[in-house]
Amino acid sequence: MADHDFDLFVIGAGSGGVRAARVAALSGAKVGVAEEHRAGGTCVIRGCVPKKLMVYASEFAHHFEVAEGYGWTVGESAFDWAKFIAEKDKEIARLSGIYVRNLQNAGAELFHGKARLKDRHTVEIDGHGTVTAAKILIATGGRPWMPHELPGVEHAISSNEVFHLPELPKRMVIAGGGYIAVEFAGIFNGLGVETTLVHRGPNILRGFDDDVRSHVTEEIEKRGVTVLLGCQHAAIEKTATGFLSRLTNGHAVESDVVLFALGREPYVEGLGLEAAGVELDARGAVKVDEYSRTSVDNIWAVGDVTDRINLTPVAIREGHAFADTEFGSRPTSFDHEMVASAVFSQPPIGSVGLSEAEARHKHGGRVDIYLSRFRPMKYAFTGGEERCLIKLVVEQGSEKILGCHVVGPDAPEIIQMAAIALKMGVTKPQWDSTCAVHPTLAEELVTMREKHVPPALGQAA
Known about the structure:
Elements: E1 6-11, H1 15-26, E2 31-35, H2 41-46, H3 48-69, H4 81-106, E3 109-112, E4 115-117, E5 122-125, E6 129-138, E7 142-144, E8 171-175, H5 179-190, E9 194-199, H6 210-223, E10 226-229, E11 233-239, E12 242-247, E13 252-255, E14 257-260, E15 264-266, H7 273-276, E16 299-301, H8 312-327, E17 341-343, E18 349-353, H9 356-362, E19 367-374, E20 388-395, E21 401-407, H10 411-423, H11 428-432, H12 455-460
Parallel strand pairs: 1-2, 1-6, 2-3, 6-16, 8-9, 8-14, 9-10
Antiparallel strand pairs: 4-5, 5-6, 7-15, 11-12, 12-13, 17-18, 18-21, 19-20, 20-21
């Protein structure tokens, strides 16, 4: 420390960076943090938190429909976009302030300004000059990827700008098939917006179990989302009444807003990584080892900028593990196996472990599948066609559960508990020995006994 201004300097005050900075500072280290926008990062400012608030707002229209089936007379209702945005902004400001106070209370010094490396120990911060640090942590996260070569792309917005639309559009085209695109499709459809989802692939939600993917597609279409697969934007044109999305299948869709949610990329631009010798991988992510150390021995990186598992809780655990290792004398590496995830689509998804395809590939096809589709009890009075899906992927022989996938009300809440069991290596007999909680959606998890044979395999047999 005698040769440097800080023991640790963190670039990025998102979830991972703030956790690392706080833990290190509480251990007695002198810590500096630079943030070019607002403390809280993607999750708090332009991601998980405001998006979940939008999901809550958008679900009420469906709740009103269900309520009528239970005897409620629902009067005239209307949604005030401007009021919602104002309340959302107040909550985000409150949460960002908590991040700032937590850093300050831990003893860390926060600099507002973009930071860049000048060398392996020197950081330049806009408006603050340069500082030196014995150790540096890069925690800058990711940012939306945009196809800059697309004609008319300047007329589209990304998932950053969607939180600040001046008014609720009547029509929206969403490009993308990942969880961000699917979540926003549910949000705006629920708010009464005529919503079209355009995805170049054969199905949405690449990386999830195939039964989950097809099931969610069917369910969001039942809710009113138009899903166009196997095509993408060829151009966007400004018209007198909005925008015209010209697609590669020859069709065109008119809208008031075109939202591109085509994935995210590590935010490394302008960080000066090359000046310090920090290596990137082929996708532009910072290369790290199991302890989050980069190719430079005094520089580490955590969170989405490393493109490992791009989830807020993962970034937090990576940041905490780094601080424990370097400032707590407790060498710790975060285990990236069996990490649960949720998609706040409508209906939502909870998933942990391997998909069926991944399990068959990894275990040579020696897996058993348990699959159930059913109408949730909550919708019994509504006459709707909504269905839940629950699926278990089990290794033959050991009967270890390799994957658990749930689509339906409260699926994200359910999967958290399932993740604990799968992380501990639970087997199907142990799982089944758990007494069901009745009547619940989740009880189906422990009452499935009949193995599911996919049509193709059944015919082959």
